[in-house]
Amino acid sequence: MPMHWRELLEASRPLLEQQGRLYRKTKNVLARKALAGEQVFTATADGKETKNTAQEGDYIVRNQTEAQEEYIVPGGKFAEKYEWIAEGEHDFDEFRSKGRIIALELTEKNLQELGLSEIFYFVAPWGEEMVAKIGDFLACPLDYSELYRIARKEFFETYRPYS
Description:
By secondary structure, this protein is an alpha+beta fold. The protein folds into 2 domains: 3-24 and 100-161, no CATH class; 25-97, no CATH class. The chain is 22% helix and 44% strand. It has helices spanning 5-19, 75-81, 108-114, 152-158; strands at residues 3-4, 21-25, 29-33, 39-44, 47-53, 59-63, 70-73, 82-86, 93-97, 100-105, 119-123, 129-133, 137-141, 148-150, 159-161. The protein is globular.
């Protein structure tokens, strides 16, 4: 059974606090209201990442990366994280990220310190398995309220250090 994200956060928090850096999402996203029960399979350039099922009020967010990965954000969190920029096509409007994250690169040393293999799975905040690989990033909001993976290629396509 994969580790729960809360366990992974507890184990990785000292590393996040010591070595993690502040980043901001610099690429705008496309988003639309989800249909309750709608399933989203998130795939990055290196393959399937996770899946999730939308609840009433959730949003489907599409990153403007080469992979155009989609994921679900709960309605309340969406309003906190994004601001509307412009109308888009096919029901997807453009939004700008308002927040920052703390992110830690999964180096060989960090993985060894955490007792994790180069490819591992954990149960994400939405209750589904999520893959993480050496070179990817573990990320969380500034309040450490959740933890998730951002694939390496997509991380560098969308995030920049915050200063």
